[in-house]
User: Fold this.
Amino acid sequence: MKSTKEMEILRVRGENINEEEDILVIEYPFTIFINDHEIITLLCSPKSLKELTVGFLYSEGFIDNLDKIENLYIDEEKGLAHVYLKEKNEFVEKFQGKRTITSGCGKGTLFYNVIDSFKSKKIEKPLDIKIEEIRDLMRKFNKNSELFLNTGGV
Assistant:
Protein backbone atom coordinates (compact mmCIF):
# COMPACT_ATOMS: atom_id res chain seq x y z
CA MET A 1 0.00 0.00 0.00
CA LYS A 2 1.31 3.45 -0.88
CA SER A 3 2.19 5.92 1.87
CA THR A 4 1.92 9.00 -0.37
CA LYS A 5 -0.30 10.39 -3.11
CA GLU A 6 0.10 13.13 -5.68
CA MET A 7 -2.42 15.94 -5.46
CA GLU A 8 -3.06 19.42 -6.84
CA ILE A 9 -2.39 22.05 -4.16
CA LEU A 10 -2.17 25.82 -3.81
CA ARG A 11 1.35 26.70 -2.65
CA VAL A 12 1.67 30.06 -0.91
CA ARG A 13 5.10 31.69 -0.74
CA GLY A 14 5.04 35.27 0.41
CA GLU A 15 2.58 37.07 -1.87
CA ASN A 16 2.67 34.38 -4.57
CA ILE A 17 0.02 31.68 -4.84
CA ASN A 18 0.70 28.92 -7.35
CA GLU A 19 -1.32 25.85 -8.26
CA GLU A 20 0.99 22.85 -8.49
CA GLU A 21 1.16 19.12 -7.94
CA ASP A 22 2.74 17.91 -4.71
CA ILE A 23 3.30 14.66 -2.85
CA LEU A 24 1.19 14.28 0.31
CA VAL A 25 1.42 11.75 3.13
CA ILE A 26 -1.54 9.36 3.40
CA GLU A 27 -3.15 8.94 6.83
CA TYR A 28 -4.62 5.50 7.30
CA PRO A 29 -6.99 4.45 10.11
CA PHE A 30 -5.59 1.26 11.63
CA THR A 31 -7.44 -0.58 14.40
CA ILE A 32 -5.71 -3.03 16.74
CA PHE A 33 -7.64 -5.87 18.35
CA ILE A 34 -6.16 -7.99 21.13
CA ASN A 35 -7.86 -11.34 21.79
CA ASP A 36 -10.90 -10.03 19.86
CA HIS A 37 -11.16 -6.86 22.01
CA GLU A 38 -10.92 -3.59 20.11
CA ILE A 39 -8.12 -1.63 21.76
CA ILE A 40 -7.32 1.43 19.64
CA THR A 41 -7.49 3.07 16.23
CA LEU A 42 -4.31 4.82 15.13
CA LEU A 43 -4.10 7.27 12.24
CA CYS A 44 -0.79 6.34 10.68
CA SER A 45 1.21 5.78 7.54
CA PRO A 46 0.06 2.52 5.88
CA LYS A 47 3.56 1.00 6.00
CA SER A 48 5.29 -1.37 8.43
CA LEU A 49 1.98 -2.22 10.11
CA LYS A 50 3.27 -5.38 11.78
CA GLU A 51 6.14 -3.43 13.32
CA LEU A 52 3.77 -0.63 14.37
CA THR A 53 1.46 -3.15 16.02
CA VAL A 54 4.21 -4.93 17.94
CA GLY A 55 5.81 -1.61 18.93
CA PHE A 56 2.46 -0.31 20.18
CA LEU A 57 1.83 -3.47 22.22
CA TYR A 58 5.29 -3.26 23.76
CA SER A 59 5.35 0.48 24.45
CA GLU A 60 1.87 0.41 25.99
CA GLY A 61 2.70 -2.51 28.29
CA PHE A 62 0.54 -5.22 26.71
CA ILE A 63 3.62 -7.38 26.06
CA ASP A 64 7.19 -7.35 27.34
CA ASN A 65 8.62 -9.61 24.62
CA LEU A 66 7.62 -11.23 21.31
CA ASP A 67 7.08 -14.63 22.92
CA LYS A 68 3.84 -13.32 24.46
CA ILE A 69 2.24 -13.17 20.99
CA GLU A 70 0.54 -16.36 19.84
CA ASN A 71 -0.69 -15.02 16.50
CA LEU A 72 -0.65 -11.71 14.63
CA TYR A 73 -2.68 -11.08 11.47
CA ILE A 74 -2.71 -7.79 9.52
CA ASP A 75 -5.61 -7.05 7.15
CA GLU A 76 -4.30 -4.11 5.10
CA GLU A 77 -7.50 -3.74 3.05
CA LYS A 78 -9.67 -3.28 6.16
CA GLY A 79 -6.99 -1.52 8.24
CA LEU A 80 -7.05 -4.09 11.05
CA ALA A 81 -4.56 -5.96 13.20
CA HIS A 82 -5.73 -9.05 15.07
CA VAL A 83 -3.36 -10.05 17.85
CA TYR A 84 -3.79 -13.10 20.02
CA LEU A 85 -1.73 -13.29 23.18
CA LYS A 86 -0.66 -16.60 24.74
CA GLU A 87 -1.65 -15.52 28.24
CA LYS A 88 -4.54 -13.49 29.58
CA ASN A 89 -3.46 -9.86 30.01
CA GLU A 90 -4.94 -7.61 32.71
CA PHE A 91 -4.56 -4.51 30.52
CA VAL A 92 -6.68 -5.98 27.70
CA GLU A 93 -9.58 -6.53 30.08
CA LYS A 94 -9.32 -2.99 31.50
CA PHE A 95 -8.96 -1.13 28.20
CA GLN A 96 -11.82 -2.37 26.11
CA GLY A 97 -13.52 0.19 23.93
CA LYS A 98 -12.56 2.37 21.03
CA ARG A 99 -9.80 4.92 21.40
CA THR A 100 -8.42 6.93 18.51
CA ILE A 101 -4.97 8.47 18.41
CA THR A 102 -4.35 11.02 15.71
CA SER A 103 -0.98 11.67 14.15
CA GLY A 104 -0.99 15.34 15.17
CA CYS A 105 1.63 16.82 17.46
CA GLY A 106 1.11 16.74 21.19
CA LYS A 107 -1.43 13.89 21.32
CA GLY A 108 -0.47 11.08 23.66
CA THR A 109 -2.17 7.77 24.21
CA LEU A 110 -4.76 7.17 26.86
CA PHE A 111 -2.87 4.22 28.27
CA TYR A 112 0.24 5.92 29.63
CA ASN A 113 -1.31 7.43 32.73
CA VAL A 114 -3.01 4.25 33.88
CA ILE A 115 -0.26 1.78 32.99
CA ASP A 116 2.41 4.03 34.43
CA SER A 117 0.58 3.97 37.74
CA PHE A 118 1.26 0.21 37.81
CA LYS A 119 4.83 0.29 36.50
CA SER A 120 6.27 3.71 37.28
CA LYS A 121 9.62 4.17 38.95
CA LYS A 122 10.80 7.34 40.62
CA ILE A 123 13.39 9.28 38.63
CA GLU A 124 16.35 9.80 40.92
CA LYS A 125 18.32 12.36 38.89
CA PRO A 126 17.43 15.10 36.41
CA LEU A 127 17.83 14.66 32.68
CA ASP A 128 19.33 17.70 31.00
CA ILE A 129 19.06 17.96 27.22
CA LYS A 130 20.06 21.09 25.34
CA ILE A 131 17.62 22.44 22.76
CA GLU A 132 20.32 22.28 20.09
CA GLU A 133 20.75 18.54 20.77
CA ILE A 134 17.03 18.01 20.18
CA ARG A 135 17.14 20.06 16.97
CA ASP A 136 20.20 18.11 15.79
CA LEU A 137 18.45 14.78 16.43
CA MET A 138 15.34 16.01 14.57
CA ARG A 139 17.48 17.06 11.59
CA LYS A 140 19.19 13.65 11.53
CA PHE A 141 15.84 11.86 11.80
CA ASN A 142 14.28 13.91 9.00
CA LYS A 143 17.37 13.58 6.80
CA ASN A 144 17.14 9.78 7.05
CA SER A 145 13.38 9.64 6.42
CA GLU A 146 12.62 9.17 2.73
CA LEU A 147 8.96 9.97 3.39
CA PHE A 148 9.86 13.28 5.06
CA LEU A 149 12.28 14.19 2.27
CA ASN A 150 9.53 13.61 -0.33
CA THR A 151 6.65 15.28 1.51
CA GLY A 152 7.96 17.52 4.29
CA GLY A 153 5.85 15.58 6.81
CA VAL A 154 5.48 12.20 8.45
User: Anything to note?
Assistant: DSSP finds five helices and seven strands in the chain. Helices lie at 49-59, 90-94, 111-119, 131-143, 146-151. The first helix runs from residue 49 to 59. The beta strands are 4-13, 16-25, 28-34, 37-44, 69-75, 80-85, 100-101.
